[in-house]
């Protein structure tokens, strides 16, 4: 970038120009020794005739601008010739990506949980680097919207970084969006981890050598004004808060992922358990119905969700001749003893299966459903 020049002749700024182009202008009389010129690293705008190698530039009376006039016609950071260094630019962009990533990621996760548990599970299971690659274009687009509304971004405002076109004018929203597209490909390498590493190192090397980033060359000037102590404190505070927020979100995501894994394991174990219950019921029903005593017939058994139900008929009594409360009072003690001590009921006790007993009269009308929970009754 050090061989690119900007000139100001009677208030009109032109550039960037290569040194050979500037010399050609001098030879053709397009500029004279009084024209104010600037390039990165020069320090300030200076008359062309004061620059080594241009002392012989022709002088005319048409150029009456002074250095002070040119300096005050430009923003302070460009007038002082301060070029944004690679690390300041990198940290400013990182802050933008972090902040916007958090602001976009939280509502995205909430929306996913509302729309589809499967989508939420996919987001939780997807590695953070892959999610970052997926969200990169959306983050850059939202950053462009923010720039269109405010003329800057969070990171650039914190670190006093400014982006202007080659003539030193502020970018329009369209210009900044076009620059974002170039940043996406040439600067971030689409956000894909390995590619992004190489593109960032390449652009860092260019800027460190005083050259523009490849996506800025011939189009944009990235400058920076000095940061006062107050701005430095503010920047450190914001970065600390962003890191804290990122840590809290990461902890929440990890906790949610652990709960999701636990729920998945629980669902799988429940499916296996219910499958075993159905198998037990199928085998038992092969020998049913059968009389268990003189008045009670076991008709069938059924596997429910975390429950095993037996259907009995009191063959000597119609339902309307029996008091349901009395039936339960008589039956419950023996049912509890069977659930808690019978070796054949060990499977149900060990797996927390509720045993339920449905009694009907000989007229097929229900009398009472008695439920025995071994976890409660067998203490």
UniProtKB/TrEMBL annotation:
Transmembrane spans: 97-116, 128-149, 183-205, 232-253
Source species, domain of life: Bacteria
Pfam families cross-referenced by the UniProt entry: GYF_2, RDD
The RDD domain, residue ranges: 83-205
Entry protein name: RDD family protein
Subcellular locations according to the entry: Membrane
Domain GYF: 5-54
UniProt KW keywords: Membrane, Transmembrane, Transmembrane helix
Gene3D superfamilies referenced in this protein's UniProt entry, alphabetically: 3.30.300.250
Topology in the lipid bilayer: Multi-pass membrane protein
A GO cellular-component term linked to this record: membrane
């Amino acid at each position: 970038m050090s061989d690119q020049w900007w000139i100001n002749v009677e208030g009109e700024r032109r550039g960037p120009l290569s040194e050979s182009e500037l010399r050609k202008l001098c030879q053709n009389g397009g500029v004279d020794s009084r024209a104010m010129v600037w390039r990165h690293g020069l320090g300030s705008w200076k008359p062309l005739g004061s620059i080594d190698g241009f002392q012989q530039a022709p002088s005319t009376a048409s150029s009456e601008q002074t250095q002070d006039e040119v300096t005050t016609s430009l923003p302070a950071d460009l007038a002082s010739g301060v070029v944004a260094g690679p690390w300041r630019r990198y940290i400013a962009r990182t802050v933008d990506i972090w902040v916007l990533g958090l602001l976009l990621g939280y509502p995205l996760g909430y929306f996913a949980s509302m729309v589809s548990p499967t989508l939420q599970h996919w987001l939780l299971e997807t590695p953070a680097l892959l999610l970052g690659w997926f969200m990169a274009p959306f983050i850059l687009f939202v950053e462009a919207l923010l720039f269109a509304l405010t003329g800057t971004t969070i990171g650039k405002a914190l670190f006093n970084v400014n982006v202007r076109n080659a003539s030193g004018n502020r970018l329009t929203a369209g210009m900044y969006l076009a620059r974002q597209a170039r940043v996406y490909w040439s600067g971030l390498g689409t956000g894909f981890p390995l590619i992004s590493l190489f593109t960032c190192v390449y652009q860092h090397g260019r800027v460190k050598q005083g050259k523009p980033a490849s996506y800025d060359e011939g189009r944009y000037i990235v400058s920076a004004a000095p940061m006062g102590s107050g701005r430095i404190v503010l920047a450190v505070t914001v970065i600390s808060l962003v890191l804290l927020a990122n840590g809290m979100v990461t902890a929440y995501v990890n906790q949610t992922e652990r709960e999701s894994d636990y729920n998945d394991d629980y669902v799988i174990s429940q499916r296996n358990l219910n499958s075993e219950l159905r198998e037990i019921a199928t085998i038992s029903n092969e020998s049913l119905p059968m009389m268990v005593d003189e008045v009670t017939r076991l008709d069938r058994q059924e596997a429910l969700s975390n429950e095993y139900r037996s259907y009995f008929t009191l063959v000597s009594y119609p339902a309307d001749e029996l008091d349901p409360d009395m039936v339960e009072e008589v039956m419950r003690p023996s049912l509890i003893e069977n659930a808690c001590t019978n070796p054949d009921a060990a499977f149900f006790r060990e797996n927390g299966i509720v045993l339920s007993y449905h009694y009907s009269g000989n007229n097929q009308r229900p009398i009472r459903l008695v439920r025995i929970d071994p976890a409660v009754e067998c203490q």
